[in-house]
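Most newcomers find our protein records easier to grasp once they have seen one. A record pairs a protein's sequence with a compact description of its fold. An example says more than a description, so a record of this kind follows:
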Amino acid sequence: METQEKEKLQELIDLLGSFRGRHTELVTVYAPAGSNINQLSNQIASEQSTAMNIKSKATRTNVIDALERIIRHLKLHPKIPEHGLAIFCGNISKNEGQPDIQIWAIEPPQELRTKFYRCDQVFVLEPLKEMLKASGVYGLIVMDRREATIGILEGKNVTKLKHLTSNVPGKYKTGGQSAARFDRLTEEMAKEFYRRIADSVKEIFFEMPRLKGLFIGGPGPTKDEFITDGNIPNDLKKKIIAVKDVTYTDEQGLSFLVDVSQEDIASEEITKEKIILKEFFETLGKNPSKVAYEINAVKRALEMGAVQKLIISTKIPKEIAKELAKKAESIAAEVYYVSDETNEGVQFKNISGIGALLRFVI
């Protein structure tokens, strides 16, 4: 899910979550992708009949009216959209006796797999909230014969999960039979360490439901030896996306592994943020007249139609971000939201949190 899509979904969740009915008169409907729209209409019509039994006349009227609006809305769709359909409808009035029946119907940004109907005092938002979570995680392993660090990349966050050390000695410099025996023992100790790493990898990742793939890094040939000799389960071996040369094998190495794997995880937000912010800072350094930052300068550039790419930190107040994004969309400018969870994001936030790459100098 794009960051902009996440922002819009979060806004909707915040809005719907702010409503609370006086009685059970807020209706939530989730129709999964591939479901039959006619069957859904019939179900809602059946719920109308059930609603006739509600004792309170005001509540009964509001629920029946909400269900009628849902049925009318469904007639606008020849079929359930590709990702499914989420509908929220009900009386959101704060004044008793003055109903205000409103409806929101969206195609979620990700495939909806929940079939659900409820009439309650609140809208049920958990399926949408789940979509805001990172759609998957990547496993990260950096290692050599001395140590190994295991972590995950989830969204923009790199987290260390485990660190292991070995007793594998360095090279034996003296020649002869003793050296050969020492080398054999060293190789066996190294293979044993690889197996320990593999056991930890299996323990952490084997049943991780949202695991999208593994990245392995380290100096020299040790990472390849680990893959060959570590007895990694075949199901996890199939999830290895890339093997990279990385100097560090501690927690810092996890971040380096993410950096050198950017092409492989280009769809992940951390990479997208780094790319757009790299472009912004490089342009600022080489051709500052093609960049605007701080709110007044960016607003002026938007009003002149000069903005090609608008960049907004997620730390900017929502109302300001919304206003700027709306102006950008009106001039067909691209809008990027960036967090402060990367070094580049922190740097961008510190210079103002609002920036633009320009089509022309102003």
Observations:
- The chain has twelve helices and 13 strands.
- The longest helix spans residues 177-205.
